[in-house]
């Protein structure tokens, strides 16, 4: 028998409403597509973690560049900007996950299908549901 | 996103060097790095500036912010770069128009809510900026008065960061909340001016003080406790002429560096420093890690350094005064830089004749063993004593004398006037030499370029008998010139030389009558040179407060 969880700020959203993170990720995807990137993969998971977005953009030599993207969403600046929450450790993990993703896909950076890889961070600030969300896209962070 | 620069000043002692503060907002996760040899206080500037901008209605850029202080090899210390850092970052973030920053120097520490705090060394820093061609300065409002002392600079005193932003955007500058008082201003409340009138008796010592003031001579006072040594020394700055503008700027810059607020204007009264005898060498000479701070000798520059209870000072500390006494500067070397501070002070030493203080008092019973007295007196080393131009012994005043002494006292104003006249004569005589008073004149000039006074054979004799060092010869000549200046004579005469010799011979190993003609007589080993009827000696004796009649009687007999 489990007692019902009391209502509070940390309760789960209703099943039909996406979480804050999921909304932020969708906004990030929209932003990347508007920038001309093609989405290759989303929420790819393995035993070491999850990559939010994998996208690709063309480079001059005709091949494509892989962009591994970490999305961080916040609903306010009270605890700092979303980008500030992306620590060095998170970037290290993203870099390692990028390697696992390539391995799982049988590709490799440089010589094969992909010209190069890049790590980006997209910060999404959802202003409490009012106004337009602020999207801050930082390229090539680590 | 972009790049912008602002300017501030790094202080290496009194010397200021322009520092360019570059801020670059580049691609990268939010992070702020500061490069260019900042010390801890300066590195923390990053966090102060972040909070101050946040609390002033703006945002620290969400990017990789690189702040570079150039020249990168110059060590930089202190919190006064905050304002320049904020200006550069805001300009790089396009909050401030970058073009407006050119030709402007920024100095000020920020508090987390965006208010500006006063900084040390503003005056020397702005003087350096002005020399480097800067035409505008932004400083904390509380220090706008100090900044205005530097002509040629347009000064903007601002109280908050919001005002800075409005100022540079050309918007109306909002009113700031009233200032909190300068944290250190309470410490320098000027008390009642000290007047020589308050000193009872001691006509000889008062006169010696006048001579010291007139020629800027170093003075040693020996006497039992409670005779007024400290009172006399405290009143010496009041006798000295006010500082000229150039001197005042130099003195004010030194005191600004030591954190003294200058909103009431330049320091025009000669400064007075009286460190306690527990003072360390560093506090006297100046020093400290990385960039040396001025010590008491520099804070007494162009003024008076008074060491009360001189034998109680560690002998190392006393002996460290030897070089600045000669050169007028101290050079302090640290691994990262060398700092030179001016230290042209007038030394006044006061000491008791023995550990109990009664040795020189006629009639009093001193219980100190002879060895103890000797040890006590030797604590002030001979090289230091040799640098004192005037050495006087003070006797306790007897109660019966108080009334008579009260009637005879002169005010500081009266004595200062005579000192001023004597200084005018010196300035006139020394015009074009770079010196302004007898105490500064170099020996060769004294002996070679100025007319030799009558009676130099007295000096020769003293020198031959080994009682006068080569430096002592010059000192006696200098004092003789000052005595002549006080008397209004063009060249010192025999009596002046003799008096100068007597004033110097205040040998602490003699008894309380050190300054007496009998002593000079025996000292010179020529009783015949002191006949009566020397007119100038009478001139001296007619000086109010002077008791230099033929017999050089002790105080009791000199007074009516």
From TrEMBL, chain A:
<keyword id="KW-0378">Hydrolase</keyword>
<keyword id="KW-0540">Nuclease</keyword>
<protein>
    <recommendedName>
        <fullName>UPF0102 protein FHX74_003324</fullName>
    </recommendedName>
</protein>
<feature type="region of interest" description="Disordered">
    <location>
        <begin position="1"/>
        <end position="21"/>
    </location>
</feature>
<dbReference type="GO" id="GO:0004519">
    <property type="term" value="F:endonuclease activity"/>
</dbReference>
<dbReference type="InterPro" id="IPR011335">
    <property type="entry name" value="Restrct_endonuc-II-like"/>
</dbReference>
<dbReference type="InterPro" id="IPR003509">
    <property type="entry name" value="UPF0102_YraN-like"/>
</dbReference>
<dbReference type="Pfam" id="PF02021">
    <property type="entry name" value="UPF0102"/>
</dbReference>
<comment type="similarity">
    <text>Belongs to the UPF0102 family.</text>
</comment>
<dbReference type="InterPro" id="IPR011856">
    <property type="entry name" value="tRNA_endonuc-like_dom_sf"/>
</dbReference>
<dbReference type="GO" id="GO:0003676">
    <property type="term" value="F:nucleic acid binding"/>
</dbReference>
<keyword id="KW-0255">Endonuclease</keyword>
TrEMBL record, chain B:
<dbReference type="InterPro" id="IPR004482">
    <property type="entry name" value="Mg_chelat-rel"/>
</dbReference>
<dbReference type="InterPro" id="IPR027417">
    <property type="entry name" value="P-loop_NTPase"/>
</dbReference>
<dbReference type="InterPro" id="IPR003593">
    <property type="entry name" value="AAA+_ATPase"/>
</dbReference>
<dbReference type="Pfam" id="PF13541">
    <property type="entry name" value="ChlI"/>
</dbReference>
<comment type="similarity">
    <text>Belongs to the Mg-chelatase subunits D/I family. ComM subfamily.</text>
</comment>
<dbReference type="InterPro" id="IPR000523">
    <property type="entry name" value="Mg_chelatse_chII-like_cat_dom"/>
</dbReference>
<dbReference type="Pfam" id="PF01078">
    <property type="entry name" value="Mg_chelatase"/>
</dbReference>
<dbReference type="InterPro" id="IPR045006">
    <property type="entry name" value="CHLI-like"/>
</dbReference>
<feature type="domain" description="AAA+ ATPase">
    <location>
        <begin position="215"/>
        <end position="398"/>
    </location>
</feature>
<dbReference type="GO" id="GO:0005524">
    <property type="term" value="F:ATP binding"/>
</dbReference>
<protein>
    <submittedName>
        <fullName>Magnesium chelatase family protein</fullName>
    </submittedName>
</protein>
<dbReference type="Pfam" id="PF13335">
    <property type="entry name" value="Mg_chelatase_C"/>
</dbReference>
<dbReference type="InterPro" id="IPR020568">
    <property type="entry name" value="Ribosomal_Su5_D2-typ_SF"/>
</dbReference>
<dbReference type="InterPro" id="IPR025158">
    <property type="entry name" value="Mg_chelat-rel_C"/>
</dbReference>
<dbReference type="InterPro" id="IPR014721">
    <property type="entry name" value="Ribsml_uS5_D2-typ_fold_subgr"/>
</dbReference>
């Amino acid at each position: 028998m489990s007692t019902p969880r009391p209502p509070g700020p940390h309760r789960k959203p209703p099943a039909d409403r996406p979480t804050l993170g999921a909304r932020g990720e969708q906004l990030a995807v929209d932003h990347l597509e508007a920038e001309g990137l093609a989405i290759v993969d989303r929420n790819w998971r393995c035993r070491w973690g999850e990559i939010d977005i994998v996208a690709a953009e063309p480079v001059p030599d005709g091949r494509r560049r892989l962009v591994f993207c970490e999305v961080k969403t916040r609903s306010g600046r009270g605890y700092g900007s979303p980008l500030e929450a992306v620590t060095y450790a998170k970037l290290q993990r993203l870099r390692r996950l990028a390697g696992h993703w390539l391995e799982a896909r049988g590709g490799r950076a440089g010589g094969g299908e992909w010209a190069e890889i890049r790590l980006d961070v997209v910060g999404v600030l959802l202003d409490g549901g009012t106004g337009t969300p602020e999207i801050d896209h930082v390229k090539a962070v680590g | 996103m972009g790049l912008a620069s602002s300017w501030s000043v790094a202080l290496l002692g009194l010397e200021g060097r322009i520092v360019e503060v570059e801020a670059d907002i580049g691609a990268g996760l939010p992070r702020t790095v500061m490069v260019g040899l900042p010390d801890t206080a300066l590195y923390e500037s990053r966090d102060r500036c972040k909070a101050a901008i946040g609390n002033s209605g703006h945002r620290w850029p969400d990017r990789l912010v690189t702040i570079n202080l150039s020249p990168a090899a110059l060590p930089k210390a202190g919190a006064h770069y905050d304002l320049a850092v904020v200006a550069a970052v805001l300009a790089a973030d396009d909050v401030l128009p970058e073009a407006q920053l050119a030709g402007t120097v920024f100095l000020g520490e920020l508090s987390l809510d965006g208010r500006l705090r006063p900084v040390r060394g503003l005056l020397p820093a702005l003087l350096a900026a002005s020399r480097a061609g800067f035409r505008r300065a932004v400083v904390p409002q509380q220090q706008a008065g100090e900044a205005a002392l530097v002509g040629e600079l347009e000064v903007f005193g601002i109280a908050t960061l919001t005002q800075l932003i409005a100022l540079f955007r050309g918007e109306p500058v909002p009113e700031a909340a009233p200032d909190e008082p300068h944290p250190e201003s309470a410490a320098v409340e000027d008390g009642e001016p000290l007047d020589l009138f308050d000193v009872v008796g001691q006509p000889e010592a008062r006169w010696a003080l006048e001579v010291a003031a007139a020629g800027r001579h170093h003075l040693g006072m020996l006497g039992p406790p409670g005779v007024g040594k400290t009172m006399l020394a405290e009143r010496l700055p009041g006798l000295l002429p006010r500082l000229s503008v150039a001197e005042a700027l130099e003195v004010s810059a030194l005191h600004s560096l030591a954190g003294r607020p200058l909103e009431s204007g330049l320091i025009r009264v000669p400064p007075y420093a009286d460190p306690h005898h527990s003072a360390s060498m560093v506090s006297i000479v100046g020093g400290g890690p990385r960039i040396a701070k001025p010590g008491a000798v520099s804070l007494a520059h162009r003024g008076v350094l008074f060491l009360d209870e001189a034998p109680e000072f560690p002998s190392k500390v006393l002996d460290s005064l030897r070089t600045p006494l000669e050169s007028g500067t101290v050079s302090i070397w640290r691994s990262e830089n060398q700092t030179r501070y001016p230290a042209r002070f007038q030394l006044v030493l006061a000491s008791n004749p023995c550990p109990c203080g009664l040795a020189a008092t006629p009639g009093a019973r001193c219980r100190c063993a002879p060895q103890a007295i000797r040890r006590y007196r030797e604590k002030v080393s001979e090289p230091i004593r040799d640098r004192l131009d005037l050495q006087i012994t003070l006797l306790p005043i007897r109660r019966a004398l108080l009334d008579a002494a009260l009637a005879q006292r002169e005010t500081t104003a009266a004595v200062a006037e005579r000192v001023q006249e004597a200084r005018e004569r010196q300035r006139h005589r020394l015009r074009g030499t770079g010196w302004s008073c007898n105490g500064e004149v170099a020996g060769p000039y004294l002996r070679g370029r100025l007319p030799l006074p009558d009676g130099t054979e007295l000096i020769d004799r003293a020198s031959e008998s080994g009682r006068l060092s080569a430096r002592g010869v010059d000192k006696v000549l200098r004092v003789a010139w000052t005595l002549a200046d006080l008397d209004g004579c063009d060249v010192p005469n025999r009596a002046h030389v003799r008096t100068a010799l007597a004033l110097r011979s205040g040998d602490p190993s003699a008894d309380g009558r050190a300054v007496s003609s009998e002593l000079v007589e025996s000292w010179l080993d020529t009783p015949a040179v002191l006949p009566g009827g020397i007119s100038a000696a009478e001139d001296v004796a007619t000086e109010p407060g002077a008791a230099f009649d033929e017999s050089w009687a002790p105080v009791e007999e000199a007074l009516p």
